[in-house]
Design goal:
Elements lengths: L1 H15 L6 H9 L8 H8 L2 H7 L5 E6 L5 E7 L14 E5 L18 H7 L3 E5 L28 H20 L4 E6 L1 H12 L7 E7 L11 H6 L3 H10 L4 E2 L6 H9 L6 H8 L13 H7 L4 E2 H13 L9 H8 L11
Helix pairs in contact: 2-12, 3-12, 6-7, 9-13
The chain binds 2-acetamido-2-deoxy-beta-D-glucopyranose (NAG) (3 copies).
């Protein structure tokens, strides 16, 4: 009896290892009346952690941790070569891929072999590095701050400005050193291109390390934004941030977030509110682009969390029509930047 009790924690650890951030929601969907719509293979990809998904499809997988100047411990996934073609290890041209707001490196893997960008590039002979920005599920760690401790709430004190100034340079230094390459290709989706533009503007010495930059839905200036939801909330950017902070919310749509199960209800396949789901999570509005067959896979791995301030900072872009540093409020701007308005994100 005693022995089996001792074994139990060990067994639990084995059973819970290798699960995706929202595997519990995937289990729930599978048991629900809608569960019959999807194949068990799709459910499995939704439930497995990213390493297991990549290994399941027999691609090489490496996990790397990179520490930024300001102490954030970032998690990158490397697919160093292809499976069917270009499948020998060795020196290859490096391509970095960085995800959008609330997302993670899983975005470039989940569609599977033959469809997902990361696999296609590996087959074409690239050394593929899937990066994660500070604060998401794979980069939720710091050398001195604990993102779960109330006393360490300054962990969440960042937007895509810090991702550009610290995360991207740290990744470039680490990856160039490790691979012995001098330059890389860079692909950024949405916020992944916003932070790249910040990096190249604020740390111009890094431009010479880039062969090419591909911006997928690149985002910098927002004065033409027509999304009514964003237009209506943008004027309240910092009011909403401080309200959220006052009730103890600094992180949105992270691992144990209360909103994620609500989103799941809204976003289930074939129900009338899918338009709202797309508005909220901003999958492409055109019909047929969001592959609803794959919904359990996306549900397991996304959203991946962000700080409230990332969203506030985009709200400021819409409100002021500028591509600028974070607006702390006039008094704090003076202390931080030496001026009342935040400086534009341009060459320094
Ligand atoms: C955070 O990083 C430290 C140091 O690398 C490591 O020991 C710890 O396990 C990490 N924590 C999490 C939750 O990943
Ligand atoms: C948050 O960061 C800003 C600048 O990035 C800094 O001025 C401020 O003091 C920080 N606040 C905390 C609580 O760490
Ligand atoms: C959705 O994804 C599945 C699995 O990759 C694929 O078989 C199917 O053709 C896709 N559907 C659309 C509409 O792209």
């Amino acid at each position: 009896m005693c022995q089996s009790l001792l074994v139990l924690p060990f067994l639990l650890a084995v059973v819970t290892a290798g699960r995706s951030p929202h595997a519990d929601l995937v289990d729930k969907l599978e048991r629900s009346p809608e569960g019959g719509r999807y194949s068990s293979n799709i459910f499995e990809d939704g439930r497995l952690d990213l390493e297991s998904v990549i290994r399941k499809y027999q691609y090489p997988y490496e996990s790397h941790h990179v520490v930024t100047e300001d102490g954030y411990i970032l998690g990158a996934v490397r697919i160093p070569h292809g499976r069917d073609q270009n499948n020998q290890p060795g020196s290859k041209t490096v391509v970095l891929i960085l995800h959008g707001l609330l997302s993670s490196c899983a975005d470039f893997v989940l569609l599977g072999p033959g469809q997902a960008l990361a696999y296609m590039l590996a087959e074409e002979g690239y050394d593929v590095w899937l990066l994660n920005s500070r604060g998401n599920f794979h980069s939720r760690n710091h050398t001195t701050l604990d993102p779960n401790r109330r006393g360490d709430i300054s962990f969440w004190n960042f937007s895509w400005d810090e991702m550009g100034r610290y995360d991207i340079p740290a990744y470039l230094d680490y990856i160039l050193e490790l691979t012995g390459q001098e330059k890389v290709h860079y692909i950024g989706h949405s916020q992944g291109s916003t932070s790249f533009l910040v990096a190249m503007s604020m740390r111009p010495e890094y431009n010479e390390k880039i062969i090419s930059f591909q911006g997928l839905a690149p985002a910098a200036f927002f004065y033409n934004n027509r999304n009514p939801f964003y237009l209506n909330i943008a004027p309240f950017e910092r009011v909403l941030e401080s309200l959220a902070n006052q009730i103890g919310i600094y992180e949105v749509l992270g691992r144990n977030d209360v909103l994620t199960p609500i989103l799941m209800q809204i976003c289930r396949d074939g129900i009338a509110t899918q338009a709202l789901c797309r508005l909220l999570i901003q999958y492409d509005k055109s019909e047929g682009v969001f592959n609803t067959t794959m919904f359990p896979v996306f549900l397991g791995h996304a959203p991946s969390g962000a700080s409230i301030r990332q969203i506030t900072h985009y709200g400021q872009g819409i409100k002021f029509g500028t591509f600028s540093r974070y607006h702390h409020g006039h008094r704090k701007n003076l202390v931080t930047y030496g001026r009342v308005d935040p400086p534009p994100t341009t060459w320094t």
